[in-house]
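Exercise 4. Each item below gives a protein and its sequence. For each, produce the structure-token representation.

Item: Universal stress protein E (Thorsellia anophelis DSM 18579).
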Amino acid sequence: MSIYQNLLVAIDPNQDEQPALRRAVYLVKKNGGKIKAFLPIYDFSYEMTTLLSPGDRQAMRQSVIDQRAEWIKYQARYYIEAGIPIEIKVIWHNRPFEAIIQEAIREKHDLVLKMAKQHDKLESLIFTPTDWHILRKCPCPVWMVKDKPWPEGGKALVAVNLSSEESYHAALNEKLITESIELASHVDQTEVHLVSAYPITPINIAIELPDFDPSAYNDAIRGQHLLAMKSLRQKFDIDENKTHLSKGLAEDVIPEISTKLQAGIVVIGTMGRTGLSAAFIGNTAEEVINHITCDLLVIKPDGYNTPITLNEEI
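Answer:
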């Protein structure tokens, strides 16, 4: 059995085409599993209708919920008729990202899929505030889907951090690769590639230290990263020609390599910080996310604790 068996699809209420649902159906056809098409809705005007009793307001809410559920059922009718197991759930909630994350936690979903808007001219993806909240705070993996068919021979590009000696980075690297390989084995044998960036020589050091040799420094840094990449690829039996190591910033290197490979998806990890920094997914990760032009899979480390708490089910 493959990972990602209990899929939660965040439905876009503003369009009939649902790329995230389409991608989820593709995964279920390949991997098995089930889908929940989920839509949190809210209309403030219903809350302002003071002339109605609470019971009447509740009846009006339920009427809207029922209408939207029928609309989703109509959009998914061909999938349902084909035997794809799709549950439809619509709730009244004024904070969509909270509702989505709470549903993922409550029902133990192992993957959330949501459509990402695409910039018409720049090809890059556009993430709404709701998207960012989900990416930062959802404990299970989040797949942001681009509204385009999966490219022919599309590859999975896994961004690994080779610059840190911290054990949690090594554990997250291995989790990213393990889940990507397992998923790829069930999706038309998709190729898994690894990518990492190593830093450029700091200019200030070269200026302040006359005896500093930038070329030797670059060679040493590159050598360290090559050894780390070799160790990682050998552990997972990945061919050398499927590993990519470039000098520069990760936010430049990763989108560049993904475009060059015509990758179908970039897989990236986030450390899921707590406290004040929990609001941020990580500067490097955020910059990478802002520049890619394909699907995105964001995975948290084991033991991540979301700041979102469960409310009573609505």
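Check: The chain has two domains: 1-147, 149-313.
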